Write the structure tokens for this entry.
Amino acid sequence: MAVAIVLLGPLQDLGRDVPGQVAAPLDWDGLLAAVGPAIAELLRDDRVNIACAGRVLADKTALDARDGDEVALLPPVSGG
Amino acid sequence: MPDVRLLDGPFDPNTLIARFTASNPGLGGVCTFVGEVRSDGDVEALELSHYEPLTLPNMRELADRAMARFDLIDVLVVHRVGVMHPGEPIVCVSAAARHRRCAIDAVDFCMDHLKSAAWFWKREQRAHQWRWIEPRDEDYADLARWSE
């Protein structure tokens, strides 16, 4: 029973110690605990989004990931 | 019907644009923007990464919004991911409309969104070192021009 955690962009470099999978279910507090204090601090930034099961959460603190879900940590983007 | 593509290999914008305009006969005007990796000092390479579940669906939604907002006949949105070198195309947006202003504005709108509101992350390599590129304040200001 697991939730996958995926880090994108610069978070990949900063979160090398973040586990790829954690036990389900996973809420906001559980996520902050799982990623460690440095990444947790970044996740609190308004510009960092979280997607669960392919949907970006309007309120990331309402995270409710279930078994089989993928939780993506999305830092500020830069395309073009 | 918008043509939206996420490509992991090199592309030739001219080929895509020629096909796009040919498939929309009788258009009043077409406006195209092509972005390339800048030869900027000692930049050796640029890498664009994305998040599969979000990036392409978000680009399709952007194209649909442009179609609705600017009264377009059609729009082409192409974006690269992967490692690119100076001179290689990164992005190509082309809009066809009956009137020029709609086509020009639609391309501007799509580019501002692709720069700072699409699911891409960019890093550049200089002197064999990779460095992530943060969005600039100007990018956010450009995007804010389109808020409704």
User: Anything to note?
Assistant: The interface with chain A takes residues 35, 48-49, 51, 53-54, 79, 90-91, 111, 114-123, 132-135, 139 of chain B (CB under 8 Å).
